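Still learning. Any example?
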Amino acid sequence: MNYVRYFTTDVFTTTAFAGNPLAVCPDARGLTTAQMSAIAREFNLSETVFVLPPRDPRHTRSIRIFTPAQELPFAGHPTIGTAIVLAACGYVSSGLDGDIEIVLEEGIGPVPVTVRMVDQVPVFAKLTVRRHPELGPPPPDRAVVAAMLSLAPADIVAGPDAIQTVSCGVPYLFVPVVDRAAVGRVRPVGNLDGHAIFVFFQRGEQVHARMFAPELGVVEDPATGSAVAALGGYLADRERTNTNGTLRWVVEQGEDMGRPSRLELEVDRQDGRVARVRVGGSAVLISEGSIRVV
């Protein structure tokens, strides 16, 4: 009988039973794709990560990320959570305090992650996005999107480019709403026409958000790092000042489902263009054990 070790962690929070839960199998050698998919369905979390040796010896590990429905080429909370689990449980550790630089190979390519260690405990991790934000196909019109979310068209910010699809590896339909109350009123209908939808309200450097992706097997996600990375491109394109330098936002997600999360977003701009996007947060270890593989 074969068993695989796992850890669970709550990501983008410093409080247990908040943030976005994640399962990490730190040594997935020997597992087939079908077995990984079955284990992800068994955990039934928004994502489960399987850690493998790197293909390139210069990198730290290779990871595969599964939702209950499919494999993803990149995701933020699995990247942050896996980095912290590997550091906390001795799979990756310098034995010193300060920053540990690791590289995780993902479907989109190698993703650098900096893990901050205090008293040899990982307290924060920050990833640098492999791909710059890219615009997707034209979105549905405002009335159609409002109906998908059980909102009135007037709840959604007006303008020809207000609703937009942006991707840093996984595409999201970004829907800005007029106030915080509208975020709370969202009730998604059906499969959202295949879209993963990120609804948000921005006030200065604070963003309140929710994310829905039923076709990925995620009815609502408490914290979505890949969406927040793409949000960096969306917001930076609309920032008319500081064409050079770093823009920062704090994204609060998960409050409306009882799992508050905090994601820190940074965008470096050079000559008005996005040069780098970073997403960071903390994580709390919750459990460990072994799962039987058949």
